[in-house]
Amino acid sequence: MISFKNDYSEGALPAILHALAITNEIQQGGYGEDDYTQEAIELIREKLNSPHAAIHLVSGGTQANLTFISSVLRPYESVIAVTTGHIFHHETGAIEATGHKIETVFAKDGKLSPSLLASFIDQVEVVHMPLPRLVYISNSTELGTHYLRAELIALYECCQSKGLLLYLDGARLASGMQAGDIRYEDLARYTDAFYIGGTKNGALIGEAIVINNPGLQEYFSYNLKMRGALLAKGRLLGLQFRELFKGDTYLSIGAYMNEMAMKLAAGIREAGYEFLIESKTNQIFPVLPWKVIKKMEEKYGFYVWQRVDEECAAIRLVTSWNTRLEAVEQFVADLKTCS
Amino acid sequence: MISFKNDYSEGALPAILHALAITNEIQQGGYGEDDYTQEAIELIREKLNSPHAAIHLVSGGTQANLTFISSVLRPYESVIAVTTGHIFHHETGAIEATGHKIETVFAKDGKLSPSLLASFIDQVEVVHMPLPRLVYISNSTELGTHYLRAELIALYECCQSKGLLLYLDGARLASGMQAGDIRYEDLARYTDAFYIGGTKNGALIGEAIVINNPGLQEYFSYNLKMRGALLAKGRLLGLQFRELFKGDTYLSIGAYMNEMAMKLAAGIREAGYEFLIESKTNQIFPVLPWKVIKKMEEKYGFYVWQRVDEECAAIRLVTSWNTRLEAVEQFVADLKTCS
Amino acid sequence: MISFKNDYSEGALPAILHALAITNEIQQGGYGEDDYTQEAIELIREKLNSPHAAIHLVSGGTQANLTFISSVLRPYESVIAVTTGHIFHHETGAIEATGHKIETVFAKDGKLSPSLLASFIDQVEVVHMPLPRLVYISNSTELGTHYLRAELIALYECCQSKGLLLYLDGARLASGMQAGDIRYEDLARYTDAFYIGGTKNGALIGEAIVINNPGLQEYFSYNLKMRGALLAKGRLLGLQFRELFKGDTYLSIGAYMNEMAMKLAAGIREAGYEFLIESKTNQIFPVLPWKVIKKMEEKYGFYVWQRVDEECAAIRLVTSWNTRLEAVEQFVADLKTCS
Amino acid sequence: MISFKNDYSEGALPAILHALAITNEIQQGGYGEDDYTQEAIELIREKLNSPHAAIHLVSGGTQANLTFISSVLRPYESVIAVTTGHIFHHETGAIEATGHKIETVFAKDGKLSPSLLASFIDQVEVVHMPLPRLVYISNSTELGTHYLRAELIALYECCQSKGLLLYLDGARLASGMQAGDIRYEDLARYTDAFYIGGTKNGALIGEAIVINNPGLQEYFSYNLKMRGALLAKGRLLGLQFRELFKGDTYLSIGAYMNEMAMKLAAGIREAGYEFLIESKTNQIFPVLPWKVIKKMEEKYGFYVWQRVDEECAAIRLVTSWNTRLEAVEQFVADLKTCS
Questions:
Q1: Cβ contacts of D71 on chain A, cutoff 8 Å
Q2: For D241-264, how does the pLDDT look when each residue is reduced to its tens digit (9 = 90+)?
Q3: Which residue numbers delimit the Aromatic amino acid beta-eliminating lyase/threonine aldolase domain (chains A, B, C, D) (predicted)?
């Protein structure tokens, strides 16, 4: 069975495994005090054109989110996100477990905008409601959509004007960037912090938290240790991000995943089906008859995302760094047969 | 420079790297729903002779401690530990950050006993002090000492009689077990839960939380997700523990580290030095003149553990799965030259 | 200026002040170990016909909610409430500050029903979303509506069948009970816990938490102390609830407030205005032209609750144990003049 | 039976009850927006000679401590206190429940000094231990001792030099101030914040949190609401502190309690007994034979504080605003008879 369930079904880029092998016996410092982590940080800083960005490597996305978000909020402060935001919808209350409310606004395409933000802020009451402090967005979003550069800048400026911090969840950053026009430098300039997803972009595990805002950098390591996010063998994370940020590796994985997803989408459209939402990233949401879904499930792994009506449902298909063109073609061929 | 700073300075057992390489392209389920994790769990259960133990793999020790401990306590309940206990001394308030007080008792050798426990319990007041609920011990301890089987059983029975849970931090479990007479089955019978340390025993990262007490097993996964401890690519953890628990691999690493540490200790003793505390595990604490320490620091990495007096301090030397006999011999030879 | 802003603008029932005066020099135990608290508890138990109910007196409603709710939840468990629920909307993230997410469903009339509950439960995912555990309702609700006995029973039975606890916020319990047909015994039988509001029903301060479910009673006092809710001079709370639960005092205050509110509503309707929502309790929400609102604000205190359109807004008027008939008549007369 | 158990066994100063009675029907704003609270705040500011102090009234001491302390700490920051400190010893883990570790140093007399503080700070490790941020002291202390002005200044300057905040728990502030030479202005200048105890100084309930440090004032009200400490009928607290801070009322209560305690102590000494620790405040700790204790317990209420040896134990006797001279004399007379 071929799985399109997600982008973490396989292991890691061969280059990462190779790097692990050839450095294995070299003694290194613990807790991120290893050479590889330092090299990774320097490579990322260069890409961002931001020599003073504080960069910390952690093992997973929920961990990145909860550790960073809780580190910048005072106890009575809240986060604003869209209702489909990963921290609100799919992290088992991880932010609330650190003591903070997530306020939500509904966005059909999973993207936050200055006007949605303003409409929420306008009805916040003093003292009897938490003070909103941080805005959370994802790129690409949980619905496969992505932000454009102008949208990111507008949102950041809106946040600035309202005393809000902007944080971007980049679990699928490469795919999101390649679908749009946001460049590394934009992330460094138009967010207070973000994380660069490794797990869903060819690493074994790992996410790189980047803190741009200098006022949020000091003491962040204490939070990492306190939340159980500071790995003794930080070298494992360092090596992977060093490999991902050599040359164009990181973004080219995103480009590859998007290409595979677009081929898949084209084939599905050719077979006569529509999509729940337009996506140019590695997550696509075709709407198929239940009967066809049942049939396809016999040979392929994927999630049924959302019931549309009696007849149809949207499924989610995700491509990865290791998705094969043959798998895509086979899927489309089988779909056409089913119809 | 050769480092005796800790047991996580190198990468992983070659068998682990090999397993990663040959399984890399095989698609697997996420979040621990992969074959390797299931295989690892079965191997561990067999060793423990405990088919119903709940086993969860996480990336680090502080994470294992905070996730498990916070999962079993009601808000007003506390943990009891010795003052040198890792959760009290060296985890940046990770347990308190989940809302719980750690009550401490002093133990010269870093080991908790029924009488120390009783003396603490006797002075607890109702309502105005937290209700003690869980006892935390480490094996081997933070001072390099270890528990004997009879001591573990006595402590567990004491806990049982007082309505307390017993939890064992096994960051250095193999070394602790090989120094004494505790067997896998004892851990399954005489603790409510414990974790098997991988990071300090030849893995890249990873610890295996074992929950023996059936009343504490249900819903534990929710805590993992909520604390950021549930890895999308759980396969990384599964593969490693599968390799460590094939045959005697896990314990034999402990035996090897202990052997290297004992050779080092013998050489140091031969050179005329005493130890802060007796240790049969992979951490030893020789007391050296400051002058000698300075000299040795030029060629070797280690921590100065504790000032003894004007003349002397204890240093900590730690051996690992990859410590070479030549390094041990070189250290001893250099020490003799220094003296 | 006469205030209809809320039901806590005045002091306390004269009987309460009298009781404070005549007991002032009598020495009593601290932390709720006083005779008055015991007497109050017995009076409440009699009303509830529930000799084993655990009853604890605290100083405020948010405190009652956060202390009780956090005491029964495991870390990964959530609360379900309507979006207008006080804990979600107006308590500054107090529940989230104890580490728990509040999941919400929308209800036009501010009341939760089995079908709304079921529709939420149906889409909860395992592990990646918190486990719902407690259902929060208010009676009367934040919109002035109230539950009927049959509705409470249906909701409780629905909760029971789904393994959920039912908790009722009784900040305005007397008003809510008098508007409908719920009796004290029903609260004891068809909720797991609830609180009886004193502050908004003629006390200086104070709410009585009643825990019906025996499994939730033990150790609750520890939570009170830990959350800062255990008053040294518990006598102040005990005396007040003793006075409120002598004879029919408590409910008769509710009846009086409702009567004043209904007179006010009748006058407003007579003056030609409609209401945002039907209410039989001490909170009413007439819809008035902005022009009229401005005029009335000169002589009366009240909150503008919600913009309706360009022309109109709903205001909130609240009656209290001390609202005078003359004030009600004057308001209506002035309103008629304004129109 | 006459109780010397504590200073909260009786009700309130008659002036407070009178003020409650004559203002009872006057409508006032909620949540501290009442005239009495504003008057109380102005009176306290005058006493402190500190027009910009932020002052907030809450219902109890644990609530004051947990709300203030948690409001100023970042997640990874800790509090330093002596082992007898109330927050460490007797508040059921209330501070830890907000996520913070309390680090302790031992002080025989229950008082923290710059040298004790320095010895703790010197051994704090970066990242792997919490960052100490706030120093907690009590005046009078839990052992009945008190700080002198010079000691307070020295401690504050030490804190300043180390980047630490100084917070003083004034549950028994009047007694502590009257025993030594600290004046109101000193509290405003040489602490970052403190609270003025009402409950143990003649109020029904209530403590006044005073935040001197302007950097800690903004948004504090949000914390109050979030922790359940913002009373709807704040007037109850306002009126009481208004009465306590008219003229010298507050301090004269302290003087009276101390006078009664000193008479009690003189009589006990005369009867031939020593004290566990020297105290000039309203808590004294005579050491009596067990036999005598048993006898005295028949007529008087008090706590056995600490076993001294086979023969003797220290008891705690506390005087209040309402302790009668006759009760003191009777106690001494009975003690002499017992001996």
A1: 74-75
A2: 999 999 999 999 999 999 999 999
A3: 19-284
